Amino acid sequence: MEVINFSLGRLPYTMFFAGAIAQLPFAVEKFGKKILLVTGGSSLKKSGRLDAIERLLKSKNIYYAIVTVNGEPSPQLVDAVVKQFADKEINAVVSIGGGSVIDAGKAISAMLPLNESVYDYLEVVGTKLHGGVKIPFIAIPTTAGTGSEATKNAVLSTTGTNGFKRSLRHDNFVPDIAIIDPELMIGCPFNITAASGLDALTQLIESYVSTKANPFTDALSLSGIEKVQRSLLPLCIEKNDSIPLRAGMAYAAYVSGITLAHAGLGIVHGLASPLGALFGIPHGVACGTLLAAAARTTIIKLKSAGDTKYLQKYAKVGELLAPEKGGSDVEQKTHNCIHTLEEWTETLAMPRLSMYGVREQDCATIVKEADNKNNPVKLNDDEMIGLLRERL
Questions:
Q1: What pLDDT, on the 0 to 100 scale, is given for residue 1?
Q2: How far apart are CA 240 and CA 87, in angstroms?
Q3: Residue range 3-15: average pLDDT?
Q4: So what's the pLDDT on residue 194?
Q5: Which residues contact residue 120 at a Cβ distance below 8 angstroms, ignoring those fewer than 6 apart?
Q6: 266 pLDDT exceeds 70?
């Protein structure tokens, strides 16, 4: 019998139900009456939801200032916001938006007490360790993808030849409160829903087959994969934009944040980071377009190594993703896994890397900056270049 060993980190106090946004004023009041509201570019405003949220805050006499995040957050954005509000006695930071908005708010809440450049505290490129002191932080996702509402790191990036994607990380940076309301996700464009959903699926699969997986993360990963199988295609292809389906994807994204934080990720995320930094490819698109090719390459190498443990795990993923295809052995079920992921890549119209300017001669540079992370088998440079070429 397997000996169970794992550690469980902090999780946010979580409210997950339709209409949960109405609890925002009461959540804010735990910390004070003066908040920084971090939002995305325009969708929240256009939908009318920002006006409704502002009315909620005003009803409790909560003062707020709004900060807008366009695209993935940079250290320069965080530094500018911190400089603007460092002396304003902000009681809490509230992020309402996609993963980028939540990451930005998470970093702002961490840097406001220090009033220093966040660059100095980023992993790899920085030289300082953050002590974990922060302004209370509330995360409210409006897309279902990164799971940042459950994690302790904020990903910041710069784009270009010397670009990077690095994390500001501390156990205390897990949001104090996560408000997950599937009603806020109704109307999210289906291309964003698809890319975000495949990001969540990638995180669930990679943490499930991770070398650091454990029974706790396995159980969550499998439950999330099942929700994606039932929800993503009906949302994006059948255009059934319903609360139950949005809730299914919101759950999958949330638990993917928990599993990645406790089990780690694999080769797709190891490649997605340099792709985003060097070419500005949105994170969900990078993950979604590479997932099937990476699964195939990994499974082929596992078979050549005579592995049984991780092939059985991929077979279980195949069972969940394609229950209608059946199959009585690991060979058939791993085939179903690969084939279903390939079908979804095409059906959900994941862009190819060349659409973002990636050329064949760039693959070696990308791989040089890549990382196998906790992939169940280590891929060499040629294998990574090969799977990139498949998606050019």
A1: 66
A2: 47
A3: 91
A4: 97
A5: 126, 127, 128
A6: yes
